[in-house]
Amino acid sequence: MGELLLPAAELGLSVRYTSPNAAHDPTRVYVTTDEGVAAAFASRYLVAGDRPVPGDLYEVQSVGSTEEDPDYQGHSPGMFLSCRRARIVRRVASGLALS
Q1: Closest to 45 (Cα-Cα) out of 57, 55, 56, 58
Q2: What domains are defined for the chain?
Q3: For the residues of the chain, what is the DSSP string, one character each?
Q4: Residue 31 and residue 68: Cα distance in Å, rounded?
Q5: Mean pLDDT in runs of 10 for the chain (99 residues)?
Q6: The pTM is what?
Q7: CB atoms within 10 A of CB 7
């Protein structure tokens, strides 16, 4: 453990978000303090061609300050956050997929 989670833009990845009104910033890493929410997002991981693959769930620690995710401002303060980078503390679960 200890590896960094980097934002899509820093990795040269193109991100397509399904909601046209989402305020997604590809220079940020998005995290949540709710394990159930995190597992739901991890289970929806897609690779090129919109092919679903099992995702992993990590406990992370932000590197630097966090900001509220603008898509969730006013709802569950402190639960939906973003940061410039996050450090993996431990793997909570592997191979999460929608059933």
Answers
A1: 55
A2: 4-12+26-96 (3.20.170.40)
A3: --PEE--HHHHT-----S-TT----TTSEEEES-HHHHHHHHTT-EEGGGEE--EEEEEEEEEEEEEE-GGGTTSSTTTEEEEEEEEEEEEEEEEE---
A4: 10
A5: 93 72 85 94 79 90 94 89 97 90
A6: 0.85
A7: 19
